[in-house]
Amino acid sequence: VRVGDWMIAIGNPFGLGSTVTAGIVSARGRDIRAGPYDDFFQIDAPINRGNSGGPSFTLEGKVFGVNTAIFSPSGGNVGIGFAIPSNLAKPVIDSLMQSGKVARGWLGVRIQTVTNEIAESMGLPEDRGALIASITPGGPAASADIQPGDVVLEFDGKKVDHMRSLPRLVAETGIGKKVDVKLWRRGEMKDVEVVLGQLPDDEQLAELGQAAPGNAPSATDSAEIESLGLTVNALTPELKRQFNLADDAKGVVVTAVAGGSPAAGENIRPGDLVLEVGQDEVGSPPEVQAKVNEAMQDVVPALR
């Protein structure tokens, strides 16, 4: 299905009975913030309340989507409708028919967007992929040696162009399947294999997230990093209580951010945890200071 293709939508708008409307596919891959798996077709065939769940057809009669939502300031059709791609709906339908519930693939990671600044700092040629922010203990990624700071560039032979592409690719992949994952780690490509698990419910996720308590930090000092405009402290029981941090939290905690500083410009706030600098783990304020100083030495000569 391509942008500009003619299509037909079927539904029951306002309870009037079966209705057929025609239009074109306006866009692909729309993210309407309905959930982590957003990948909608945008269509301009008139869709109104009651059309949800109806099929979107090609002119050859092939179903390519499920009518799902509209964008409308007034509540009526304004020519912007959305349909779930059939490729995304089919595994859900199969799962419901087989087990009566939706079972999705699970990688066990938290991810974030790869910005231009992050890509440059990591030596990535372009700002694409999904940056691993943290790993769920006991999850599939942890067993496959995927680490925080890795950037997922390919999953099961498919490119990960944007952060939001990864959850969809994982959800579409069969539970228990062994998948090849291409990562960017510390300036070079790395291939790993991961066996996908089944997405657990909230209670199971909470249990998995309860890692064994770590050792208390030995350093109790702080460091004011003027080049970034922030102050960091070693983790203490008092700071954990103050910033509502987990007992097993690691790294160092940000305790102050100067207004108008580079740190403030990146939305770093007191209570944030610094886990790595330059993809190297840090456990004390002097380590953070040393890593920042090392990075500054590399940057300043280039600026001159």
In short:
The chain is of the alpha+beta class.
Overview of the molecule:
This protein has 304 residues and is an alpha+beta fold. The protein is 23% helix and 32% strand. It has a 6-stranded antiparallel β-barrel. Strands 8, 9, 10, 11, 12 and 13 form a 6-stranded antiparallel β-sheet that branches. The N and C termini lie far apart (51 Å). It has 8 helices and 20 strands. The chain has helices at 86-99, 116-122, 140-143, 165-172, 202-208, 237-242, 262-265, 285-303; strands at 6-11, 19-30, 40-43, 55-58, 63-70, 81-85, 105-106, 109-113, 130-135, 151-155, 158-159, 178-185, 188-195, 197-198, 222-225, 230-234, 252-257, 273-274, 276-277, 280-281.
Question: So what's the overall shape?
Answer: elongated
What Rg is obtained from the alpha carbons, in whole angstroms?
24 Å
**Content of β-strand:** 25-35%
Report mean pLDDT, rounded to a whole number.
Answer: 84
Q: Give me the count of strands.
A: 20
Order of helices and strands: EEEEEEHEEHEHEEHEEEHEEHEHEEEH
Low-pLDDT residue spans: 210-220, 299-304
Pairing-aware structural class of the strands and helices?
alpha+beta
Q: How does the major sheet shape up?
A: 6 strands, antiparallel, barrel
The rounded distance between the terminal residues' Cα atoms is 51 Å
